[in-house]
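User: Reviewer 2 asked us to show a designed sequence for the structure in our supplementary figure. I'm pasting the structure tokens here. Could you produce the per-position amino acids so we can include them in the response letter?
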């Protein structure tokens, strides 16, 4: 009996889309691949360069990387619950869902990007996971105008700004960045307060003097190297975050040369925690009942679709499925979150 190929419809469910594709199944057995002719087998020496790869990004977030970042953001937002946090500054409580952290170097970068990421960023991530129980995060490295590396990080736990700054300054000063900042400030203001006229467009004289007086109180040992704010009030949180984490300073087609101008970050420019990086989505074989729910969702929600020969993508918010009564699709996704991430919060109400 000749082997027969059957295409089995499979559905992968993500927070913002349904991905319908097909899996091949051979019966009663899978045929053995035909032997390749000699000319189709590359020489291990002559064509070795075709088999090698590189992780270099040249500072570019590729289209594939953008999809991965956006997927990580989707799940981070979905699994981040809104909590009440007390503000030590105002004395009031406010809603918090995710925090947007920026980490910078207060003095000129003299170490490689790899060293900064290994010795500073990695240590920072380890500490906030232990101290503040941060579970999910996504980070992105970029260049400032002064050519220093800096980081944007999305986290799912609240951290007070002063604790954040103290922690980051302690970490980066293992490489001497706070000490060099203090020395620079002492030298620049050796005759008293000195105005930075080149910064007046975005930093007023009054603000500069306030920063100077605050710096004097700590002997310039606590530079303003961090920033954190809640983005609960942003209307489209995902769009806001994605804008920062996926933007490119250069076009993907633009050739980048690594030279003295330093136009890009070397090595990895983004990452996330292991759980987010391993996300596959809720996957299930499509039966008649599921097919009916998919068709019903198409009819009621009229989503944007991408249809190819062997797959289709329907951009549907998971909460819309719950709202219109496609409960089996919704249940499959919720069970996936529970089984893979031990996430068991009530998801019936959109975030």
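Assistant: Here is a per-position design you can include in the supplement:
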């Amino acid at each position: 009996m000749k082997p027969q190929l059957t295409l089995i419809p499979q559905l992968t469910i993500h927070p913002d889309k349904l991905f319908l594709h097909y899996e091949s199944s051979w019966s009663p057995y899978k045929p053995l691949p035909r032997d390749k002719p000699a000319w189709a087998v590359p020489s291990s020496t002559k064509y070795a360069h075709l088999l090698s790869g590189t992780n270099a990004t040249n500072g570019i977030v590729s289209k594939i990387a953008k999809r991965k970042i956006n997927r990580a953001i989707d799940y981070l937002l979905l699994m981040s619950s809104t909590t009440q946090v007390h503000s030590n500054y105002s004395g009031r409580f406010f809603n918090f869902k995710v925090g947007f952290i920026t980490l910078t170097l207060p003095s000129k970068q003299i170490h490689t990007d790899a060293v900064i990421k290994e010795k500073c960023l990695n240590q920072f991530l380890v500490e906030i996971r232990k101290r503040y129980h941060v579970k999910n995060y996504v980070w992105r490295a970029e260049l400032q105008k002064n050519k220093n590396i800096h980081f944007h990080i999305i986290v799912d736990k609240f951290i007070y700004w002063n604790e954040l700054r103290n922690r980051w300054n302690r970490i980066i000063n293992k490489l001497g960045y706070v000490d060099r900042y203090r020395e620079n400030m002492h030298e620049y203001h050796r005759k008293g307060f000195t105005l930075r006229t080149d910064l007046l467009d975005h930093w007023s004289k009054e603000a500069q003097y306030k920063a100077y007086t605050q710096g004097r109180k700590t002997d310039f040992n606590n530079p303003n190297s961090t920033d954190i704010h809640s983005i609960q009030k942003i209307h489209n949180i995902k769009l806001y975050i994605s804008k920062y984490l996926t933007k490119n300073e250069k076009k993907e087609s633009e050739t980048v040369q690594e030279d003295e101008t330093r136009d890009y970050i070397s090595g990895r420019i983004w990452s996330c925690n292991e759980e987010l990086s391993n996300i596959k989505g809720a996957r299930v074989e499509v039966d008649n009942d599921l097919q009916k729910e998919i068709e019903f969702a198409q009819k009621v929600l009229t989503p944007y679709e991408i249809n190819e020969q062997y797959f289709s993508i329907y951009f549907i918010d998971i909460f819309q499925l719950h709202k219109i009564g496609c409960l089996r699709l919704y249940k499959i996704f919720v069970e996936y979150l529970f089984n893979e991430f031990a996430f068991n919060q009530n998801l019936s109400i959109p975030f």
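For the response letter, you might also mention the following. The domain at 63-177+222-268 is CATH 3.30.70.1910 (Alpha-Beta Plaits). The two ends are 55 Å apart (CA to CA).
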